[in-house]
Amino acid sequence: MRYLIALILGITILSAKGQEFIQLEKVGSSDKVIENEAIIYGNFIQRLGFSSGGFPQDIRIQNVETNEIFRFRVKPIYKSKKENTFIFHIPTGNYKILVYWWTKSQWYGGKMFTEPIFKGVDTSTKDFKKKWENGKIKESDLEQYEFTIEKNTINYLGTWHFDTGLVSFSDDKESFDKEIMENFINLDFEKVVTNLPN
Length: 198
Prior knowledge:
Elements: H1 2-17, E1 21-23, E2 37-45, E3 57-63, E4 69-75, E5 83-91, E6 93-106, E7 109-116, H2 126-133, E8 146-149, E9 153-161, E10 168-170, H3 173-180, E11 193-194
Parallel strand pairs: 1-4, 2-9, 9-11
Antiparallel strand pairs: 2-5, 3-4, 3-6, 6-7, 6-8, 9-10
């Protein structure tokens, strides 16, 4: 009973102090751009293959002006494909990429990881994690990837290479659009803005 009370108290404290994440809405096959908002899309290459099991993976981004934190799913639940398409409605604004949230399948369930994302830094290493946890590396010392979303636009954010700890982004728009455009009948892919995080 003592452990149950401690667990409930811990969850309550975390909930009170925790930042609320806003889930971006996935774009449906017949959706259009919502007035005064935008759409983002791209291809995500995940860290794991089959060892990801059926666990989902998310990216968390922050609107620099409003400080709101948004999340969107880059690997669906019950899928183990290495590459996955993402396409979401998003409010306009300047954004920075905060973290990559993923779970590695284990024999007892899954082990969760929340990796901060910075330019030119492999945050998956033990050395980085130790320095980060001890406060020897501060967020203000590092540079984050950013992108700007303008209203009434469709934004191609590129192929997101998260298959290693050192992330990168590439432009494969021409071939990628051919793969997905027939699935979104009301989106004009001729007017898409290429908008890789930098």
